[in-house]
DNA sequence: GCTATTGACGGTAACGCTAATGTGACCCGG
DNA sequence: CCGGGTCACATTAGCGTTACCGTCAATAGC
């Protein structure tokens, strides 16, 4: 069995140099496939380095090269599978390009976000990929001041002049809302998280645009915001709670005598609680009430009835963002760019098969 | 607006030293709260460093200190919320201890696992926290050979002498199986992933123990293994597919005339597909068939009926593992230790309220 | 046959930081 | 009044690599 935690001195370039009787310099050039070394010498050096178990000291290399070949990714949480997918794709792309990924979680807290940014800078990363907590640019100003490439994903910061990659929340929510309106709903309720982020703002904007499209006046009562639970200044958009809160919000509506024809949601997890609330009210989906979720979670197609939802191009967004970031990291230029990708509506049993199946909302 | 990607030279200790008219060394000691600096001088130095925006160069510091204060975490994927929670907790603990977390994904592929380990070593991390892909120790031998602290989480490698932290899969599955047996089931089917990992092995062991507890002979037909989908040698335990595969496996059983009294599952996602299969067969939960899942996913309590399942102490496991790793990283000794935590059965509507409600399995 | 040119290699200086060792001023006791 | 100790700082030596220049021989060109 190999001994753990041995404290033998690591073999360095100097050791290899001594072993082959050449200079440190030549050995370095040989191992890095730099010109200026005879081919046979190069092979001999490589063989010897392998033999005595030489592993380059990344710290020294980073110091002289000024790069650690590492990307920091700052994400609010991993419980939202959308973020998990973003991180997953980003890791894969970074690895393929010979970079590693430093993961920092901000937990929807501006405090922690600031600390994450500080940690990223301290760690000497080559670039930062971030899903910001809010519209406040303060934390990320530090990144820009440090001269580090920065790319934002999924959430925009309005007055920050940075690259931004996301899916189209405006068009997406406009599409879902229009879908239920086209099918005869006139009283639609949007359930959303109460977070101060562009994602929510844009989805609300899309929702209002759809109402406009159909000449329906917007009322504040068309939107139900689910307050974010916080603990010690850390937001907790914990998925079970989202379902629970959606259940409560919907039940409140019904108890106040409201009876919407359709719900469009900012999150598939809201549908879990909403479905229960509807069952409790004896309302049937989609004949009494239409429901469209957001995010196409794995469970959504297995609900009863299967949940219509919006599939988000998470991998594509992350891939584009990382590609752009790596381009900037390796000295690439160009004005900050914004790339917004259209999401896709997935129609399932929670929508009536054909339009205009619901009229007036109440079944006779 | 701040210019992005500027190439101004970073301010170094020397700049601070010149600004305050002191030596580099004194500035270093002042900023690191080392003795040998007058208190007023220290404050003056700190203020000046802050003013001119000094950020220590981690590369240089790492070189001289021989550490980057970074932990590598190698995980198979982030789609399984259990792993997402492990990573989340690990990141939090590492951050609290002044470390950063390098995330590497192995995608259930031994190839990628080996590359992840290599990347971790190249990156000069101080320790490795890993969920291994298989029972093969080869990849992690390299970690031990490099003298790096290694802690395994959630999956064990039998012949690797390393610390290991997990939840008790044997006891957990024994408990769930005993629960349905206690309530009168005699024909129980376990649905599991077909992965060569200790997790699955142990859950199967627990399942068999429960059968023994009840004097029921074990038959190969008591276990339905769901083959892992692979693409280009990368396993894809993608959650929607797990549900789909469970649906298929269950339907196959029914079509071959099998009619189990209970299903115990290795994963809540299997329940999604199973529920659909049961509905298609006109079978009711829990009166006709009992179901217990595994992992307490957010959606599980919102299924119809709510899914009984096993809640896993993911955060606790990760916290213990990271604590142990950080202990070893800072030179701590001790024999490799194994800590196994009991999971908790959560009883919901997919189990009959009182034992012995089902007899013989068929309702009259 | 003598000078340019090329190729293979060595010497040395960074990179920015910390740690070990020096140095001078000051204080204190005898 | 002087020796020894203490404090506040400076000087210097690395850490292991890569980059920039030399050097020296072999070869090519006229």
Structure write-up:
- 2 copies of one chain form a homodimer.
- Chain A has a 6-stranded parallel sheet with strand order 2-1-3-4-5-13, sandwiched between helices. A 4-stranded parallel sheet of chain A has the order 7-6-10-11, with helices on both faces.
- Chain A is an alpha/beta fold.
- Chain A has helices at residues 13-20, 24-31, 39-51, 58-65, 81-96, 110-122, 138-145, 169-182, 198-213, 239-255, 268-280, 314-329, and strands spanning 70-75, 100-105, 127-130, 150-153, 163-167, 188-193, 223-226, 230-231, 234-235, 262-265, 290-292, 309-311, 338-341, 344-346.
- In chain A, β6 (188-193), α9 (198-213) and β7 (223-226) form a beta-alpha-beta unit.
- The relative contact order of chain A is 0.12.
- Chain A is 41% helix and 15% strand.
- Mean pLDDT of chain A is 89; it is low at 1-7, 233-237 and 357-364.
- The termini of chain A are far apart.
- The interface between A and B is large, with 72 and 75 residues.
Describe the protein's topology.
Two copies of one chain form a homodimer.
Chain A: H1 13-20, H2 24-31, H3 39-51, H4 58-65, E1 70-75, H5 81-96, E2 100-105, H6 110-122, E3 127-130, H7 138-145, E4 150-153, E5 163-167, H8 169-182, E6 188-193, H9 198-213, E7 223-226, E8 230-231, E9 234-235, H10 239-255, E10 262-265, H11 268-280, E11 290-292, E12 309-311, H12 314-329, E13 338-341, E14 344-346
Parallel strand pairs in A: 1-2, 1-3, 3-4, 4-5, 5-13, 6-7, 6-10, 10-11
Antiparallel strand pairs in A: 8-9, 12-14
Helix pairs in contact in A: 1-2, 1-3, 5-12, 6-7, 8-9, 10-11
The structure holds a DNA duplex (30 and 30 nucleotides).
């Amino acid at each position: 069995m190999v001994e753990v935690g041995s404290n033998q001195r690591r073999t360095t370039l100097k050791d290899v140099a001594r072993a082959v009787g050449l200079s440190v310099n030549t050995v370095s050039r040989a191992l890095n496939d730099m010109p200026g070394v005879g081919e046979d010498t190069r092979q001999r050096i490589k063989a010897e380095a392998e033999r005595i178990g030489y592993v380059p000291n990344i710290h020294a290399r980073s110091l002289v090269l000024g790069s650690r070949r590492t990307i920091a990714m700052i994400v609010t949480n991993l419980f939202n599978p959308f973020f998990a997918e973003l991180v997953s794709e980003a890791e894969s792309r970074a690895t393929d390009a010979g970079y590693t990924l430093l993961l920092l979680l901000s937990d929807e807290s501006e405090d922690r976000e600031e600390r994450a940014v500080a940690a990223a800078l301290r760690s000497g990363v080559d670039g930062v990929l971030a899903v910001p907590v809010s519209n406040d640019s303060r934390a990320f100003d530090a990144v820009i001041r440090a001269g580090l490439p920065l790319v934002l994903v999924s959430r925009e910061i309005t007055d920050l002049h940075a690259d931004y990659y996301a899916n189209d929340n405006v068009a997406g929510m406009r599409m879902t809302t229009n879908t239920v309106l086209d099918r005869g709903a006139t009283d639609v309720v949007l359930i959303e998280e109460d977070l101060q982020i562009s994602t929510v703002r844009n989805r609300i904007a899309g929702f209002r645009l759809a109402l406009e499209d159909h000449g329906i006046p917007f009322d504040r009562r068309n939107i139900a915001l689910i307050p974010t639970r916080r603990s010690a200044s850390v937001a907790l958009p914990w998925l079970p709670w989202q379902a629970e809160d959606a259940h409560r919000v919907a039940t409140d509506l019904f108890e106040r005598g409201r009876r919407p024809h359709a719900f469009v949601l900012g999150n598939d997890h809201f549908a879990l609680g909403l479905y229960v609330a509807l069952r409790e009210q004896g309302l049937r989906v989609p004949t009494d009430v239409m429901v469209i979720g957001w995010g196409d979670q794995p469970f959504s197609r297995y609900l009863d009835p299967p949940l219509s939802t919006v599939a988000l191009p998470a991998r594509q967004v992350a891939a584009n963002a990382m590609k752009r970031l790596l381009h900037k990291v390796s000295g690439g230029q160009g004005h900050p760019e914004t790339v917004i990708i259209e999401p896709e509506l997935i129609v399932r049993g929670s929508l009536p098969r054909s339009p205009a199946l619901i009229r007036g909302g109440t079944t006779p």
